[in-house]
Amino acid sequence: MGELAVLPVRSRRLLCAARLGVSVAAFALAFSPAAPAAAVAARVTLLAFGGYALATLMSAAARRFSESTGGWVLDGFFLLLCAGLPAPAAGWLCAAVFAFFVSTGLLFQTWPRLAVGAGAGLALVLLIRSGDASALGPGLAACSAVGLVAGWYKRRLAQRVFSAARRVQSGFCVQEAVRAERQRLAADFHDGPLQNFAGLQMRLEVVRKLLERDPSEGLRDLAELQRLTGAQTCEIRAFIRDLAASEDGGAGPATVGFAVERFRRESGLPADLEGEDAVSALDCVRAREVVKIVREGLHNIHKHAGASHAAVRIGRPDGGLEIAIADDGKGFPFDGAYALDELDRMGMGPQSIKRRVRALGGDLVVQSRPNAGAELRIRIPL
Question: Is 228 exposed, middle or buried (CB count within 10 Å of its CB: 0-12, 13-18, 19+)?
Fold first, then answer.
């Protein structure tokens, strides 16, 4: 739940220094004349704990262990050793170690563990030092109470912070989803209705010039343009239905064959198509994306390449779908073959196609031969 404290390294080292300080005090008390009856085993154990406390100050690995549950249990064992020292001054040392024990538990342990550890430590200390219980009891009980209340408050605060962080993360995810959906809609509109209107504008210009030169021929083209306008109106309706439909429903561009045929009709250029059936291996969502990629590639050829011929080849080698869109036009303003990442670094290549290929988890290579054509090679995993 995120109850554990996040402290800077300097503060963690201060805690380790405090551990080393109380361990040195305990060791000195065990060898003092006030504690002549201290057992040899207790003195050796205190010496070992002092070495451990020094290691936590010097070593990051030992410091991480000291902040774990195992390290806290070891601190509790040290508390009991201090409680067992026979010197009268051991009572005050025991109180200081108990305060340290509760503090580290408050910082690095969960509230249930702190409650169990503090309660057990208080009971055992008072049991071991029964002679000092009347003097130590109130102070140790107050220390435990303060630690438990602070631990409970820390837990509540951590829960609130965690809830707030989840809300912020959820809001961020929603914003990312909205941004991705806006990009998708922009790409769909660019590759769909916007291209249709661009093609319609070019045809209108052709008809205008034809009417000036040959009115009868111009009227025939105008009738054909009227038919195309009706078809494009139907496609815009399909585009709107596609936005309102579920992910696997709706209507998009019919097929790759339809996109190629429309390119032939609108551009007047010959275009070859091979392997259209390979698209059937994709689900309907990815199949629509492939059709949009092909349509965008052909539209770019019509608009920018100055080509006299285009070709679309689709195949399924090695468990993937490969699409090649080629033309014999003027090519891109570079010579050679460049992959998707290289195109991004150069700031070149068809942006809409790059975005769609990346969304499909595919690869794109653009090969350009200035004044000799270009080819887009796309591979999409099945």
Answer: middle
